[in-house]
Structure formats: C-alpha cells, structure tokens
Amino acid sequence: MWCDLFVTKLVPIDLRSDTVTKPDRTMRAAMADADVGDDVLDGDPTMRELEERCAQLLGMEAALWTPSGCMGNTIALMAHLQRGDSFLAPHLAHVLGNELGTAAWLAGGMPQALPWVTPGVPAASDITAASASAGPYYALRTRLFCLENTHNAAGGAVVAPDEHAVLVAAAREAGLRVHLDGARLWNASVAMEVPPAALTVGVDTAQVCLSKGLGAPVGSVVAGSAEFVAEARRLRKMLGGGVRQGGVLAAAGLVALDRVDQLAEDHQNARLLADGLREIGWQVDTPQTNIVLATTLDLPTTLSRLTALGVHASAMAGRVRMVTHRDVTRAQIKQVLRRIGKDATRPSGGRSLGSSRASAS
Ligand SMILES: *Cc1c(COP(=O)(O)O)cnc(C)c1O
C-alpha cells in the first residue's frame, strides 16, 4: 500500500491544460515527411491542404493557418474593428481576459462583456441592448459580437446550434459582425454530435485550435470569406506569423484533424473525474466537455496540495481547473481520484482540498 502511494507520487499527471500533449510518433513522422514550399512567397502544398480541409469542415469559404489561437482571434478582430469600435463578448471570454489586451492594443476594440444566462452563453436581448447603435454621429459604434464555443472559463460549456442561431440572429439584426472563438469547437461538435459546420452558421469568421485536444504541437486556423482570408494573410504577416516551410507544422494539423472523434474519450474521462471528485466530497460542476471546474475555499493551498500529490491542476476564474486530454488515460484519472481520496482522509487533507463541506462554511 505505502509502496503504491510512494511510486504513484513520483509520476505526475498533468491536468493543467489540453495544450500539454506531446506529438506522438505518427504525428512526428507526418511532419518529417511533409511536402513543403515557401508559404510566404508562393505557397506551401501541405499548408494549402490543411487550410482547405479546415474551410470545408467549418463550412467556410477559405481558411488561414496561424501559429496560435490568439493570433487567429487578433487577426479576425483587426479585420472587423476600427479604432474605438465597441465589441461584445460573453463574460470571461478568452478575447477579453486572456489575450493580453490585444483586442484593444492591436485591434483597437472597446470591449463590452455580456453576462451569462447559462454558463458561457449570453442573452440575445443583451446583444440587442448593448448594440443599440444607429445613434447620432457622437455615439459609440458597436461593430462585432464575439462568441466562444466551447466557453473555456465556463468549464468548456457548449453553445448548442439553436442557441447559436438565436445569438447570431440578434447580432445580425443589430448590424454586428460575428466572430466565433472556436478554440475548442471540435469538443463542442463531438459533445453535441453535430458537425463543426453546424456551429459556425451565420458567422463571418471562426478560429479553431489544432494544438489543444487534438494534440498538434502548434497551430490554429482562422476561417471566413476568401476576401477575409486575403486580408488575414496580410495581417498575419504584419504580426510576424508568416512562416516559410510551414508544411512541417501543417502536417501535424492534418494528423490532428483525424483525431477529432477521439475527443469523446476526453469527455468521458472528465465526467469520470468530476463524478469521482464529487464522491470524495468536492463541489464540482458536471462537465459538458473536457474541462472540470471545482470550487475550493483556499485555491493556492489546494493547488499546492494537488502538486504534492503529483496532480497538476490550474486556476481558472477563482476555481480549480482540471482538463482531460489525449495524453492522460482513464487509468490515470482513476489514479488521480485515488491520490486525492487518500489525501482527503488525512487530518490536514480534507480541509485543504476543496470539499463541499468546507465551502459551505
Ligand atoms: C486557448 C484559447 C485561445 C488561444 O489559443 P493559443 O493557441 O493558446 O493562443 C483562444 N480562445 C480560447 C477560448 C482558448 O481556450
């Protein structure tokens, strides 16, 4: 018994993010064998293949690879906004709080957060109210609504196609453009068993990550009209994101796209983790996808206790965040539950690790 605990403590299980995955042999082999060209000069065939496949999957006219999701979002916002334009996004959206203010610094946008009616999802009426534009010449101009699916800080909450349709319609009605931050759109698609293109209906632009649950080491894609992508290519170059023999990176993205269906396992593991933590006495939301959020009284203490147990978690909106991904197995999730369960029985453990008993007091 003590032996089991001793050994397992030595093997850390990393649940900080689904970005910690490492490219496996298949992916590395595809990268090594990639057909390449100069993608800044006159094109890279593997980049083209990835972009065309993404555009098709997303039901958009064209797509452009970017080194990161943040750059994809920044490019979209730069294309949509003029300096001083207001843009709307759900409370705790990634573009509001997690992109170093680039929406303002680089895209010139004035951010306006919309409250949630359900986790991650704003009310259509708030879009209408916040964009009551068409005022006199001195009125603030609201130009863009930025949706996030899944909503990261809401615990990977999905926006269903019908909710999406209502929000997009309200934005359109108010004369707004729509950008979809779909860093984890693949997760939403798998969780709701709808094609990704069903979740982009009516949007002008969408950004999807290849480097999160899908496991590519680098890369995102921003999609929209052919006209948008032509401008996005210029903006990407301005931001330093034009790469030369990018096919080496795009090849990883193509392998990643073959793995979308496997996200279902991450979702099952997240559910297993949440259910198990609840049984131990934690206050945990039921995850819709691969992000588990738990409430704790003392976040720093809980995180350091977890680290001591070899369970790496992170903080998100004042809560403990654990993300399942392709490099963590079902057996490891059970191991996480065993480690935390054992710790909670110790005199000091129950209090430091977030339990519903503790947070009720
Ligand atoms: C991770 C993430 C991004 C940014 O992706 P990077 O590749 O890390 O720059 C954008 N939006 C959301 C919702 C994310 O979770």
Automatic annotation (TrEMBL):
Residues 14-294 form the Aromatic amino acid beta-eliminating lyase/threonine aldolase domain. Pfam families: Beta_elim_lyase (PF01212). It comes from the Bacteria. Residues 348-361 have a biased composition (Low complexity). Residues 341-361 are annotated as: Disordered. InterPro entries: ArAA_b-elim_lyase/Thr_aldolase, Low_specificity_L-TA-like, PyrdxlP-dep_Trfase, PyrdxlP-dep_Trfase_major, PyrdxlP-dep_Trfase_small. Keywords: Pyridoxal phosphate. Its cofactor is pyridoxal 5'-phosphate. Belongs to the threonine aldolase family. This is L-threonine aldolase. It comes from Actinoalloteichus caeruleus DSM 43889.
